[in-house]
Hints:
Elements lengths: L20 E11 L1 H7 L4 E11 L6 E5 L2 H6 L1 H8 L19 H9 L5 H6 L10 H45 L8
Antiparallel strand pairs: 1-2, 2-3
Amino acid sequence: MRAEAEFNVEDFDNPNNNAGVYARFYYVPKEDAAASALEGRKVFKDTEYIEIIAAGNANNIIRKPARDMDKQRFHKEYALFKSGDMEQLTGTPLTEVPWINRSQVEELMYRKIRTLEQLSEINDGACNAPGMYELKRKAAAWLVKAKEAAPFTAMQAEMDKLKAELAAMKAETASAKPQGAAKG
């Protein structure tokens, strides 16, 4: 008898397509048999594990020891993990999206959707809750608009920085001017 997986393996194993698939690295303590034998007690060693999640399906999760292929495929998340960031959240957290209310954030978190990018990329089949497809569509549209506005947002930030520098120079110049000519 062949065992059937409770998840779609193809969701996880395509290293060329990470859309809708997210990873988190973490440590699992594993007993080091050789060290345990030497010490006469159980000695554990942290082993790097990976959790791969198909966003939108809380049952579609794989947890396994991290392989080099996983570290390369999810290199951004792995770099965050190695730097001490245990969440490895990449993208816009749902809590920062003004048009998603708190209860929607909680519902999405339950479904393992933590960022706007994950929401925009979930499989249509995972949009089985009322309003979920509309949230997905709105997330995708919002990300497109944000990307289109990025050059203008950067330009505005640069203008604000230059205005602040100019104001500081004006204030410095005004304070450096002599208050009155000395009479002699």
